Amino acid sequence: MGCTASVPDPDDQDPFLMDKRVNAAINQSLQSNRKNSKNQVSLLLLGAGESGKSTVLKQLRLLHKGGFSDQERIQYGHVIWVDAIQSMKILIVQARALGIRLDCDDWSGSLYQYKRMVLKANALQQIDTSIAGGNNFLNEYVLKYSEVRRAKRRQNSTGIANNSFWDDNNSPRTGNNDRIVEEEVEAADAEVNGINGTTEKYSRSQIAEAIDMLWKYDSGIQQCFHRSNEFQLESNAAYYFEKIYEFAKPNYLFTNSDILKGRIKTTGITETNFHINSFKFKVLDAGGQRSERKKWIHCFDNITAILFVVAISEYDQTLFEDERVNRMHETLVLFDSLCNSRWFLNTAFILFLNKIDLFETKFSPQSLHKYFNDFTGNTVEDGISYFEKKFLAINKTNKPIYVHRTCATDSTSMKFVLSAVTDMIIEDNLRKSGLI
Ligand SMILES: Nc1nc2c(ncn2[C@@H]2O[C@H](COP(=O)(O)OP(=O)(O)O)[C@@H](O)[C@H]2O)c(=O)[nH]1
Ligand SMILES: [Mg+2]
């Protein structure tokens, strides 16, 4: 009583009905996945090193994540201060290499003392390296500013433009690694401790004065700066020099603009999550230099859109990794391999022609023609549309490529660009999920 024997339901045995139930379950699961995925967007920032990927990410953070913490402002302050000193040192040293006569070379002139001061200033003694980024910062510092490393970079490279994210032909030869690390540590020690006895400790205001005087009054420094495409110099060195007195003030709090103009090299892949109009955006920012690119493939799955950043102003510059390779040539090869890759046949592609401000400043038809001899135009606009067409012609797939001309350091214009981009990505995602 009260107990009923379980009698097998005849429907359970019916293969047709069983199939129907399985299908219904699959559909339900697909629908719920779609509902989730329609609200989730993964955006991957790609492009060569120093093209502006992390700056775009900074702008997204300003717009959607409340900006930068005080800790970050202090960190960027340290990094910019060091880069300002080193950039002026580089101009002095490179002038010699390029045969440019500097006013400050004249030991009886008033600028001589400032040159001595900059060359003898120990940039690392000026800051707290642990706040600037600890070991990562020091490694990057040594890599950037050691002449020894410059020779190594070339030795370990093939000297040709390369997409190098499938293989690691360009990674340092393993046998040399230990020696390279040792040399880096030695070079860093020499800088930090002034082992070679060539450094002196100056106050920030003394250094600011020296940099300002050389920048404003040494015509050779200006000449050398205008040839900075021939060596490696921070994109925004001029900005650092112009604001050097402000940066030297002990209580100066680095502004959003300063942080946008500062550079900390990205290594590995960073993930930042945003909420934009009830959508979850996951933005992946990858290091762009050759040795970093082989990590890219690990995040190629489930990408909604690729944002490829090109520094259009760098058409006359060479790679940091290999000074025999033109930056734009390498970027074109890289774009080809990504845009036409089987991974991204159906992935929305957005192209930022970035550093438009620097392009406008440096552009001359002759200089562009020198590096791209099929260029026949005259104006800045001709130059930009020449590159725009060049990139679009690379696309062999059916997907459209959305192009924007950008100055990633300018918050006002980036606000519009980024809102157009996020709207487009959201719409594209909804269409692909079959919801519009
Ligand atoms: N003037 C100017 N500088 C830019 C622009 N975009 C990026 N930069 C600077 O270029 C440097 C490298 O940018 P970053 O975003 O770190 O490049 P990434 O290596 O691609 O991540 C930084 O100092 C930025 O401030 C731009 O449109 N104009
Ligand atoms: Mg970066």
From TrEMBL:
Q: Where does Mg(2+) bind?
A: 54, 266
Record's Pfam families?
G-alpha
| GO BP annotations listed | G protein-coupled receptor signaling pathway; pheromone-dependent signal transduction involved in conjugation with cellular fusion
Q: Which residues of the sequence carry a binding annotation for GTP?
A: 50-55, 260-266, 285-289, 354-357, 408
Query: Which keywords, in A-to-Z order, does the entry hold?
Result: GTP-binding, Hydrolase, Lipoprotein, Magnesium, Metal-binding, Myristate, Nucleotide-binding, Palmitate, Transducer
Annotated GO molecular function terms are:
G protein-coupled receptor binding; G-protein beta/gamma-subunit complex binding; GTP binding; GTPase activity; metal ion binding
What cofactor does this one take? Mg(2+)
Question: GO CC annotations?
Answer: cytoplasm; heterotrimeric G-protein complex
CDD domains from the xrefs?
G-alpha
Top-level taxonomic group:
Eukaryota
Task: List the protein's name.
Answer: Guanine nucleotide binding protein, alpha subunit
Species in which this protein is naturally found: Candida tenuis (strain ATCC 10573 / BCRC 21748 / CBS 615 / JCM 9827 / NBRC 10315 / NRRL Y-1498 / VKM Y-70) (Yeast)
